[in-house]
UniProtKB/TrEMBL annotation:
Species, as recorded: Pseudoglutamicibacter albus
EC number: 2.1.3.2
Protein name: Aspartate carbamoyltransferase
Function: Catalyzes the condensation of carbamoyl phosphate and aspartate to form carbamoyl aspartate and inorganic phosphate, the committed step in the de novo pyrimidine nucleotide biosynthesis pathway.
InterPro entries: Asp/Orn_carbamoyltranf_P-bd, Asp/Orn_carbamoylTrfase, Asp/Orn_carbamoylTrfase_sf, Asp_carbamoyltransf, Asp_carbamoyltransf_Asp/Orn-bd
Catalytic activity as recorded in UniProt: carbamoyl phosphate + L-aspartate = N-carbamoyl-L-aspartate + phosphate + H(+)
Binding site for L-aspartate: K82, R177, R232
Subunit structure, as described in the record: Heterododecamer (2C3:3R2) of six catalytic PyrB chains organized as two trimers (C3), and six regulatory PyrI chains organized as three dimers (R2).
Amino acid sequence: MRHLLDTKDLSREEAIRILDIAESMTDSTGKEIKKFPTLRGLTVANLFFEDSTRTRISFEAAAKRLSADVITFSAKGSSVSKGESLKDTAQTLEAIGADAIVIRHSSSGAAYRLAETDWIDAAIVNAGDGTHAHPTQALLDAFTLRRERAALKGEPSLGQGLDGARVVIVGDILHSRVARSNVWLLNTLGAEVTLVAPPTLMPHSVGDWPVRVTHDFDEALASEPDAVMMLRVQAERMHGAFFPSASEYSRRWGLTPARHASMKQGAIVMHPGPMNRGLEISSTAADAPNSRVLNQVSAGVAVRMAVLYLVLAGDSTDTQKA
Ligand code: CP
């Protein structure tokens, strides 16, 4: 695999391979992440033009677990404030020794721009670009779902997709790169996806996506999904035009204690983080025994190890873009 830019580019076999490699990065308890010498002598640069807690730190942890050196760049406090371009910034990181660049940027398409120009030779991993894609988040979500299903069935997860799983994704779909990457990956892996959002936060393009769409959260919950994935309301992308109001949003599209109580036995709560507690998700749901929010964070390290391994040390059959 040369780069990882979006889950839309992944075949089912490629996606399962990433998930299987991520499984092999954990020990037999499935929790502890092993340490490998695989990427010794290589350098991973985290190039973050937008804020991040989980993605940046877990990429850093993943690179270190593979024995790579890590350079972390944050646009805040850098020469970006003096007008330095994306091209010059990326070339500077490569000149310092970056073999892979993990990029988060507010512009949709920034990761593709780095991968498709001849500015640099480094492998590119998209850590979130605008409202477009967040492939490693979707992969860690699939990893979490796959583990859950395997545990319920008492079967190993290796080699498995998510055939027949029913996932409801709720919230600010309009601004969500997490939703977009999940829609493509979950579909590729055989899951059925329902999107729920206020009409103002559902993108017009949703008619072209392989999903069922509703504005009624209670109707979606009545279909007894295996997982309810809540999305963050991205107020920072709404430029002060938050609509509906927070109280209406919470009442109609929030995972309230009552809606949480109505979930079927064995169904799980997911959220990519950071959470707006009391808005899209109640603390009752976020902290419940069936919440997998922190499992998702843990899965992020193993999945990002698998991705860094594939783009920096994958075998010669991994020639495709992603
Ligand atoms: N889920 C996610 O991308 O979180 P961060 O913004 O903290 O990286």
